């Protein structure tokens, strides 16, 4: 059986830390908490779970803090979490089983990171992260902000999920201000930006409504041709967001089509291209793009919004087929959308509408 060190960096996490640690305390053999300057009860809460609590002076560098936490580990594998992450009971059991059966040849284990669920408790937004790594490999965190764990070797893709449980809007606003400040400080200092830095700086600009400036940095990132495929595709879709916010509809579609340069089509760009043709009443062309979104593979490891491969394209196909006079296909697609979203207002409206049509036909 392998042993696990949990390594975390925290600051002012009194609202969520206990839930996080409670979900793993019976699985991890060692819990290491590195505090970067809490002024609330974070450290007192951590003391209920571990004696390994260390202070780290914050230097605007997440990787430095995470690498310090990793350096304190003594067990076979290192698990990392943020304070607003938890393992649900089902995933706790999966992690226990993995710990008991993990082959020594495995260097890292990736897990699905679920950051949002829909009204029916299905994962709606998620992507994969390397969460458990062999300590002897001495893997390092890279980047002062939007850091990533650089791993290699034999990576196991598990069916375990980590759940993000913080108020997403509140966390995004707080983190975004901090992150943008760090990037702008680096620019002022004359730091060279890696491709990843360019991508995430553009994301921060987009989040702050600086759309034209964000487009410039997305284009600079893409022109370097050194980005991860999933980041390339995201850069195109995010750039499309910026064009849309700026009222540049043609440029929005151009950015979405650019995703096809990097890999097979993905559901979100397909649906949004379909939206463009639907808005322009080119329903047959829109149908092509929506249909494509429903048949594409889902798990690419990158950011995934499940709506674009499940209920959303079918709801739009319902409209398109109705506009082309194909009532039967329209009803079929609304019924499929209903399987995913039984209480969706538009789906229910369509249901009532179709029932009214059918009733009038029978009475006529």
UniProtKB/TrEMBL annotation:
It comes from Halobacillus yeomjeoni. The lineage of its organism: Bacteria, Bacillati, Bacillota, Bacilli, Bacillales. Pfam families: Glycos_transf_2 (PF00535). It comes from the Bacteria. This is Glycosyltransferase family 2 protein. Residues 5-139 form the Glycosyltransferase 2-like domain. InterPro entries: Glyco_trans_2-like (IPR001173), Nucleotide-diphossugar_trans (IPR029044), TPR-like_helical_dom_sf (IPR011990). Signal peptide: none annotated.
């Amino acid at each position: 059986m392998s042993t696990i060190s949990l390594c975390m960096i925290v600051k002012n996490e009194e609202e969520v830390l206990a839930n996080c640690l409670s979900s793993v305390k019976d699985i991890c053999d060692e819990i290491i908490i590195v505090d970067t300057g809490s002024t609330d009860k974070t450290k007192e809460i951590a003391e209920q779970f571990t004696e390994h609590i260390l202070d780290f002076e914050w230097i605007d560098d997440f990787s430095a803090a995470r690498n310090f936490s990793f350096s304190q580990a003594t067990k076979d594998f290192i698990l990392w979490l943020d304070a607003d992450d938890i393992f649900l009971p089902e995933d706790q059991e999966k992690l226990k089983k993995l710990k008991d059966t993990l082959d020594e040849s495995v260097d890292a284990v990736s897990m699905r990171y679920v950051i949002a669920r829909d009204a029916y408790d299905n994962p709606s937004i998620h992507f994969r992260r390397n969460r458990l790594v062999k300590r002897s490999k001495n893997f390092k965190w890279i980047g002062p902000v939007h850091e990533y764990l650089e791993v290699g070797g034999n990576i196991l893709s598990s069916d375990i999920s980590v759940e993000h449980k913080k108020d997403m809007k509140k966390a995004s606003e707080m983190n975004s201000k901090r992150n943008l400040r760090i990037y702008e400080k680096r620019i002022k200092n004359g730091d060279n930006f890696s491709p990843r830095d360019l991508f995430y700086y553009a994301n921060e600009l987009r989040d702050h409504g600086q759309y034209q400036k964000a487009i410039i940095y997305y284009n600079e990132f893409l022109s370097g041709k050194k980005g991860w495929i999933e980041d390339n595709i995201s850069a195109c879709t995010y750039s499309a967001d910026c064009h849309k916010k700026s009222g540049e509809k043609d440029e929005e579609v151009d950015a979405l089509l650019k995703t096809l340069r990097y890999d097979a089509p993905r559901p979100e760009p397909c649906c949004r291209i379909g939206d463009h043709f639907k808005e322009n009443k080119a329903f047959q062309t829109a149908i092509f793009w929506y249909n494509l979104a429903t048949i594409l593979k889902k798990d690419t490891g990158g950011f995934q919004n499940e709506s674009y491969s499940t209920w959303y394209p079918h709801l739009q196909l319902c409209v398109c087929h109705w506009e082309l006079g194909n009532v039967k296909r329209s009803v079929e697609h609304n019924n499929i959308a209903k399987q995913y979203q039984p209480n969706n207002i538009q789906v229910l409206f369509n249901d009532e509408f179709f029932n009214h049509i059918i009733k009038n036909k029978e009475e006529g």
